[in-house]
Amino acid sequence: EQAGLFSSQYGTQYGSTDRICSTHDHQTNSNHNKQNCPTPTADHWVRADQEEEAIRRKLKYFFMSPCDKYHAKGRKPYKLILQLLKIVIVTVQLAFFGISNQVAVTFKEENTMTFKHLFLKDYDQSSDDSLAVYTQQDVYDHMFYTVKKYLTLPEITVGRYAYVYDIGVNGSALSLCQQYYKKGQIDPANDTFNIDPHIVTDCIGVNPLSVPNTQLTSSYKNFTLKFHKLINVTIQFQLKAINIQTIINNEIPDCYTFHITIVMDNKAHSGKVKIWLENQATIRECKDPSVSGHAESYTRVTFDVAVSLVCLLSLLLCGRSLLRGIMLQQEFVQYFKETLDRKVCWADRLEFINGWFILLIISDIFTITGSIIKIGIESKTMSSYDICAILLGTSTLLVWVGVIRYLTFFQKYNILIITLRAALPNVIRFCCCVAVIYLGFCFCGWIVLGPYHVKVK
Amino acid sequence: EQAGLFSSQYGTQYGSTDRICSTHDHQTNSNHNKQNCPTPTADHWVRADQEEEAIRRKLKYFFMSPCDKYHAKGRKPYKLILQLLKIVIVTVQLAFFGISNQVAVTFKEENTMTFKHLFLKDYDQSSDDSLAVYTQQDVYDHMFYTVKKYLTLPEITVGRYAYVYDIGVNGSALSLCQQYYKKGQIDPANDTFNIDPHIVTDCIGVNPLSVPNTQLTSSYKNFTLKFHKLINVTIQFQLKAINIQTIINNEIPDCYTFHITIVMDNKAHSGKVKIWLENQATIRECKDPSVSGHAESYTRVTFDVAVSLVCLLSLLLCGRSLLRGIMLQQEFVQYFKETLDRKVCWADRLEFINGWFILLIISDIFTITGSIIKIGIESKTMSSYDICAILLGTSTLLVWVGVIRYLTFFQKYNILIITLRAALPNVIRFCCCVAVIYLGFCFCGWIVLGPYHVKVK
Amino acid sequence: EQAGLFSSQYGTQYGSTDRICSTHDHQTNSNHNKQNCPTPTADHWVRADQEEEAIRRKLKYFFMSPCDKYHAKGRKPYKLILQLLKIVIVTVQLAFFGISNQVAVTFKEENTMTFKHLFLKDYDQSSDDSLAVYTQQDVYDHMFYTVKKYLTLPEITVGRYAYVYDIGVNGSALSLCQQYYKKGQIDPANDTFNIDPHIVTDCIGVNPLSVPNTQLTSSYKNFTLKFHKLINVTIQFQLKAINIQTIINNEIPDCYTFHITIVMDNKAHSGKVKIWLENQATIRECKDPSVSGHAESYTRVTFDVAVSLVCLLSLLLCGRSLLRGIMLQQEFVQYFKETLDRKVCWADRLEFINGWFILLIISDIFTITGSIIKIGIESKTMSSYDICAILLGTSTLLVWVGVIRYLTFFQKYNILIITLRAALPNVIRFCCCVAVIYLGFCFCGWIVLGPYHVKVK
Amino acid sequence: EQAGLFSSQYGTQYGSTDRICSTHDHQTNSNHNKQNCPTPTADHWVRADQEEEAIRRKLKYFFMSPCDKYHAKGRKPYKLILQLLKIVIVTVQLAFFGISNQVAVTFKEENTMTFKHLFLKDYDQSSDDSLAVYTQQDVYDHMFYTVKKYLTLPEITVGRYAYVYDIGVNGSALSLCQQYYKKGQIDPANDTFNIDPHIVTDCIGVNPLSVPNTQLTSSYKNFTLKFHKLINVTIQFQLKAINIQTIINNEIPDCYTFHITIVMDNKAHSGKVKIWLENQATIRECKDPSVSGHAESYTRVTFDVAVSLVCLLSLLLCGRSLLRGIMLQQEFVQYFKETLDRKVCWADRLEFINGWFILLIISDIFTITGSIIKIGIESKTMSSYDICAILLGTSTLLVWVGVIRYLTFFQKYNILIITLRAALPNVIRFCCCVAVIYLGFCFCGWIVLGPYHVKVK
């Protein structure tokens, strides 16, 4: 008689798990049978007065799936249709953003590759991370090669780079520095050493030929390295460039500043000096963008606004449903307290809050925020591609995971999903046991085998 | 009593699924128990008059397997033997075509490889797709290297290539072009730019030394690139060759024209100019083929004709069986309507149309079409290797999949196949659930991680 | 009463499958219940006279496992111990041979590598199979490089090689040949050709400087290639060497003759000339072997003889057991015929022939033959390493597989092995179904995708 | 009644396996039902006198889990908390040691890499193990290159290396040796040879320029190799260095001596001379370590001492528990002997010895020993990194595996673990069968296929 009073939203017909506390003797409802909910006497249920009938009907309707609601009362499943629409437009928006983002990231990556080929001597792409030199002469050669290439950059490069002045030592454009220990008398022959581990940094500045202060241009050739106590040599400078490839996608170009650092690392003092180039790019809006014959495209912005509005509507509807659930819960608790003089346990109270709605609300908030940032990026008043990518990506992930909910409306899928959910705890438990042994082996293997083998590192 | 009136062709003895609508209370017949077929009263079946007996015998015979037919009436399973023969000859034909096709494709691939080694400077096979230059001088060097190699081709090449004249700019043989933006003032130093994104193409023609119009031969050295607004440099020309390797297989050689395009791509304006070579081959019949001492081999053509005839026979026999099924269905529906005054539902009507026959008919049509094209290719009046490959390949795939049908005639295999078919829907359903989550992760991963990692791209 | 009269040797206690024809109503005995064995009336079995009792005891004893025989009659399991001993010594012998064989094969492989580095220009080990040239000059360069290196071999090589004279054209040591079509007028410009596909071979001989006939030494520089109809260029010569590394293992060195062929292949006429080196080695006994201070080691030969004797003993014992089985079968058949007037079906007759004994006999024959060859190799009167390797390897494989038999003597293992054997037919059946579809896809994929992708080839 | 007298520690509630010998008719207790324990008559158990009640309570308490003990008697689970603490601190200690160890191993690896780049001609990192030469001139070139680089080492190297004098031939610093057969007349042309396999070693010493005995410096150029009987050429010398990188981790630098051996191996006499460099490092404490401004860090040593103390405490507690178990066992055996006049079988006696405690004791001993060595390493009086790594690594592995024990205190995990343990024997048995067949194939494959394929070697 009581079974079927109201059904959980997870399995309307098949996995129906009745949650009135008095029915806790059901063995299938294994998650909650450890909670000590009070068990009422059976005669409370015999009088089925008006009020009970009313709340029973309310509950029944509340836990129906959209399809059942349509069959029962003829209410069109507007929210369901809205969600299906959202899946499509959110994915389309993500795809558009993905293409824009790809252009920006590729520009940075390709410039890094160009700098490596231009500024590093004997650079070979296939063994990228193993560039190293072993003799003093080679260290000087690589160092001077880089500076020389920097000075002649405008003549040799295919791209269009501009120097950034007054950022280095003594207002120069390029800083050539060496770091060494304050004192570093090492005498392996006698097994003695006398070291002061404080680090001293010694820099000179170099300016391009175009700058009148010419004494800074050629002085770098006299830069002498203190090999016996050297820690590293760094060459730092900045270059500016404009990513005009975006014109093809009808977007206005961005301005980039590349912070380039070339490091010759002798920290290990093992006779091997590793060399690598780091490139950090910052994106800014260009001043005075002038693209002839370019009709500003409002289409994308319009689409983004549309997405935001759909998500806002979805947010409001889901919020309303969530609120209704909470209100119904209050009413239900009130009824139980007044009529039956019993408390409703927390597990049953949580049943009224639909987890899917919370997921949808989070997804909606992410999409709206992401869309606003995207509009900013497109109108070139913002350039935070990364945050926008994370927001839109996560939101799309959530929306797609939400599709699982719609599959539970089909009987066959519902059985499958309930089965999988029931099997999950045991699988996780087994993984825990394996993980513990695995962790032990990892720690042991890292120490005992690790340093002798490249792959374990 | 009614069970066994006629059996589905899928499982004569073991998976026999009786499909008379009145027997829809069988639980095993799960696919159709949702359809509302009318249920007749049982007494209709009691009078087993002449007509019913006749149609019952017809149905029984129709749904028998070839082996059962042989045992029942002694009818030799000609069609079965024909299909087994077809599997063999279709596979042999495919193997023959595969060898011919391989020769044609290999010739094209090896020529492409040759062109890359001849026309691209510093080409290295192991890093094929990463050829790129980073300095202005290198761009000029690579460009002039290609043109110079083209002009001296007959002296250096091991193969035998002929220039194709009058296809380039100003009736020249080779077109050397650059594309650039109409206006492209980029000033990264001040973060300003003034671009007109309309693309201007600027070409010069180059002619080999053998052509009298010599001014076109050396003028290419004056070709100046506008690096600051350059989009790409393309070198286009055509070469002709003859694939005489086919003589070894007793086939007449084909004539090839190679459309070679070398692209130096600066679209990204990232300081890196990617270089690649594209080679498109068109195959034509040579004029005036003269191979001394070559007796034209009719064997292959004869074999192809034989295959076509076998397939035509199979097509006719399968078509006849299909037609008989439809006619028997009409008769059956008529009988039900007149005698029992009931309609036969669609699920039962479809039982009369054997899916395997449709598969065989499609396969036969593909083989016949493919064989005709193959005869055309062998007699050098056609050269569409690709279409022929798809037709013959698909047809062989279908014929081999059809072998599954013959396995169902064995009792043990039939059980296995029916079991697998029953398990399929649940497996697909599970895959759907996984796919939805996977899709969500893909979209999210592509945007959030994609651009930073080469492998995800 | 009859169950347990005698048990199959496969499952003494657990999988006991009673095989007297009269007990064919047992459902577990599924393999043979289709055979039409005559079923006697039950009363035949009631009179258990003397004769029946005797044959029953004989059968019971025959089908016992060695352990049971020991428990029943106290007969020591000599044969079992012999087999366990055989596993050890056969494996040891194989290991000894493996080490010798490795030395011989390595010597050949390393010499091939040396020849590639010495005779091939620009040879790079990492891209071994892709050495190719694309210009006429390169073909001449590679050809002359090889001949020049051959002529100066004694001065440059680290190894000790001797020329082999009078094996080439005109009694020379090295043959330099080109093969071309008799007629090969190819005119791609006009799409015409005139080919006579008969192949003409044109050779010159080259002799090392040490040979007085000096005109053969330098004439090779005038060798002109007919590129427009060239099929291939081959350089063939022989070198002799002695593998003295075997002295370390106390073995007498072998003499090797290397047949070296360098091929420049233009068969495809695609502008790419592939170059490769083939090296075929023949092993002979050296004349006059003289190793000072080398005491001939008889240990190995002694061991090989011991192995042969053990295997011979095993062969005799297994043969005797097999013979006894056949004799007992005759007796049993005779008894059935005379007493019961019934025939014994073939399935039951085969039960008397123990498959494991056949396996052991084959293994023994292989080991004895292999040991004889091995003794021949060690005393340097034979050099057929390959045959010996196959014989000893296969024999060891069989002996190890035979270990499975001893595992069935343990109760727990017997259950496992019987279970696996029962599951095998269904697994094979499933694999058949998959294989058919897989084959279809393979044929289709090879033709449709194959030529365009390197990996499918 | 008797069931539940005392429970195994492995499954307090769920997998309770009663082990009194008289209850061996339980089918679940499958491990021991083959042992012939005496079965007492049932009436012995009827009289439940005082003594029995006492020992029963003792046993019950002994086999309780820590949680149950807490619930039963309120005893705080100090030992459990101590073990959980141990897991954390042992892992932290291992991580600290891992970082130190990594620095030491990396220093050695990078120096080896440096030596290979400095002393080996044409060394290429990507094809590390295939460096080989094929001509006599190349052997001399590589040999002289190495010696020349050694002599000029201080001028060229980036690191700081010191020569080690008086360790080579004639008190020199570098030994250049060749090994050859005493007699080695090989004549492949006539297939004859005359070899005396005794090995002769011929060495010269080379001294750096700084040493006054200059005649040893340049004489190496006259070193002539006897190629026809050469076995190998070795160059041996030692270099000293100091690993000052450890200053960054606030550790005092170690002194290293590198024993470098360069081998040119002609053992195979196959025309290919393989070249490789071996580097063996020995770590010693430096004399007179002087690091200005370096406050000796006592933190690590303090932590190591703390770890040792915790493990000592754990060792004592576990030892006490183990002892108590043995004492209770004695008492129990005594009781059985006196009261019931029965012996307790070994399987039941072993129940009293908790395997987990033994595991913990071993782990504790390892950690304490390892910690002492670690303190020695940190105070630079020891340098045996390897032993310390093995001790600490193994100990951490054992501690982590011990976590499994704590999981059995949770009901759900206990079921899982008992299930897995029950399935293990059958899995191992199956693996045995597969292993036997696999071994056979391995032996066969090694001999028959092995030498022809690189991967099988």
UniProtKB/TrEMBL annotation, chains A, B, C, D:
Provenance organism = Characodon lateralis
Which Pfam families does UniProt cross-reference here? MCLN_ECD, PKD_channel
Main location per the UniProt record: membrane
- Catalytic activity, reaction form: Ca(2+)(in) = Ca(2+)(out)
| UniProt keyword annotations, A-Z | Cell membrane, Disulfide bond, Endosome, Ion channel, Ion transport, Membrane, Transmembrane, Transmembrane helix, Transport
What are the TM regions of this chain, as residue ranges?
Answer: 305-323, 356-377, 383-407, 427-449
Domain spans labelled Polycystin cation channel PKD1/PKD2:
386-453
Q: Which InterPro entries match?
A: MCLN_ECD (IPR049134), Mucolipin (IPR039031), PKD1_2_channel (IPR013122)
Report domain Mucolipin extracytosolic positions: 105-287
The answer on whether this UniProt entry bears the keyword Mitochondrion reads no
**Localisation:** Cell membrane; Endosome membrane
Stored PANTHER family: MUCOLIPIN, MUCOLIPIN-1
Protein name, UniProt field: Mucolipin-1
Q: Gene name on record? A: MCOLN1_2
Looking at the record's lineage, which domain of life comes first? Eukaryota
Mode of membrane association: Multi-pass membrane protein
